[in-house]
Amino acid sequence: MNTTNPKSKLVRITTVPLSLDKLLSGQLAYMSHYFDVIAVSSNQDYLERVGVKEKVRTFTLEMSRKITPLKDLIAVIRLFLFLRKEKPMIVHTHTPKAGIVGMIASKLAGVPYRFHTVAGMPLLEVTGITRKVLDFVERMTYFCATKVYPNSIGLKTIIEENNYCSSTKLKVLANGSSNGIDTSYFSPDLFPIAVKEQYRKELQIASDDFVFIFVGRLVTDKGINEMVTAFEKIQDHFSNTKLLLVGDYESELDPLLPETLECIQRNAHIISVGFQADVRPYFAMSDVLVFPSYREGFPNVVMQAGAMGLPSIVSDINGCNEIVINNENGIIIPVKSTSALFSSMELLCTDADLYSELKKNSRSRIVDSYEQLTVWKAILEEYLEVCE
After folding, report:
1. Closest CA to 198 of 271, 270, 284
2. pLDDT at 241 over 70
3. Are 144 and 114 in contact (CB under 8 A)?
4. What sections of 32-114 are H helices per DSSP?
5. How far apart are the first and last CA of the chain?
6. 173: how many CB neighbours lie within 10 A of its CB?
7. pLDDT tens for each residue of 333-365
8. Residue 352: CB atoms within 10 Å
9. Residues 230, 341: contact at Cβ < 8 Å?
10. CA 231 – CA 366 distance, rounded (Å)
11. Which residue has better confidence, 118 or 250?
């Protein structure tokens, strides 16, 4: 039963529609049972497909993930006019650019409840004048918001340590995560052994190969340079290993080192399949997730891998070190440490008992703490509370 005013409008904004489609998949459709939901993002064709999938209205607002002051000002003005016309009860933004554009426009338009979810901070890897600019943007976003939701405890701590906003505005929902995990969808039970073997055969992976997998953007701040270097060393000791890369490059925003690109192209044991709409088959054919990122909010990939029964090697950063408990469902290593990455990969290749223990605990950790409906209900409670 709809417990809110049927005319209450909820506007959800991301910089690119991929975030609505993949990182928040299903959430807008769930919220549409309670609110008139409008999805706002760039790329009209893709956004409209997301609108059909989630059964919500859409409004196209061109935004860029780069620093583009003039275009951003135009976006603020367009969004301001749209919000003045629609008069939503709540505007909820995700991602840095959508956050600053959405929070400024909604405050100027008099939207009563302005929520922003923080799911990672690119500024943490930036220095100099760019860092000062991004710090200002972060503070301005939080100033315009009525509530800020870091999606991990670690991010909340970072925000407090940098004095980006008052602690009274901050809240981590459920156990963290922006969307949780549908553990009925990400389930190893959906992929019998014969199916896994077929997937492996298609990529020329032998049945006895030990497969490390990375899923995400193939960029420097995901630790790809270190991972490829460590894997080449692993190969010197274990010839039956493969590294499976699932994701696209971002050569303009955060390119890999030339020697890393050369190695990926040259090494037949490194298999790059590009972006995949459904990553489950790739998890199903793999043995360990390697995710040595420099910064995260609350990484869906680590939860997805765990739900699929894979232990993870992750860097000691917020989000990752909340999902993974060291030596229980994975291994936590120092950030940017190629040697630690190599040692952990080597350990899981050689210690069958440890690997078996980590694998046994991987799925239960996600099911117990990050089930999707639990996260959705926590967000909905925040919405309903202000609509009473």
Report:
1. 284
2. yes
3. yes
4. 44-54, 69-86, 96-108
5. 15
6. 20
7. 999 999 999 999 999 999 999 999 999 999 999
8. 9
9. yes
10. 27
11. 118
CA 310, distance to chain mean position in Å, is 18
Question: What does residue 319 show for φ and ψ, rounded to 5 degrees?
Answer: 85, -65
> pLDDT band at 5, cuts 50/70/90?
low
Q: Which amino acid is at 151?
A: N
Structure-model confidence comparison of residues 3 and 157, the more confident one? 157
For residue 21, pLDDT over 90 is answered with yes
Give the tens place of pLDDT for each residue, 214-240: 999 999 999 999 999 999 999 999 999
Q: Structure pTM?
A: 0.84
Which residues face 207 on adjacent strands? Answer: none
Q: Please state, rounded to an integer, the average pLDDT across all residues of the chain.
A: 94
φ, ψ dihedrals at 150, nearest 5°: -65, 140
Beta strands in 130-173 (DSSP E): 147-150
**110 CB-near residues (< 8 Å, 6+ apart):** 84
Residue type for 139, please? Answer: R
For 323-355, the DSSP string reads HPPBTTTEEEE-TT-HHHHHHHHHHHHH-HHHH
Could you give the angle at the alpha carbon of 141 between the alpha carbons of 11 and 98, nearest 5°?
A: 45
- Between CA 126 and CA 111 the distance in angstroms is 32
d(CA 292, CA 334) in angstroms, rounded, equals: 9
**Contact in structure between 117 and 149 (CB atoms under 8 Å):** yes
Helix (H) / strand (E) element for 30: namely helix 27-31
Written as six digits, the tokens of 254 are 């955060």
Instruction: Report the distance separating Cα 184 and Cα 44, nearest Å.
Output: 31
Q: Using pLDDT thresholds of 50, 70 and 90, give the confidence band for residue 296.
A: confident
Extract the tokens encoding 63.
Answer: 């935004």
Q: Would you state the pLDDT for residue 231?
A: 98
Contacts of 266 (CB under 8 A, 6+ apart): none
What is the average per-residue pLDDT within 299-311? 97
Cβ partners under 8 Å of residue 233, min gap 6: 342
User: Which amino acid type is present at position 150?
Assistant: P
DSSP annotation of 55 reads: T
- Write out the two tokens for 227: 């991972």
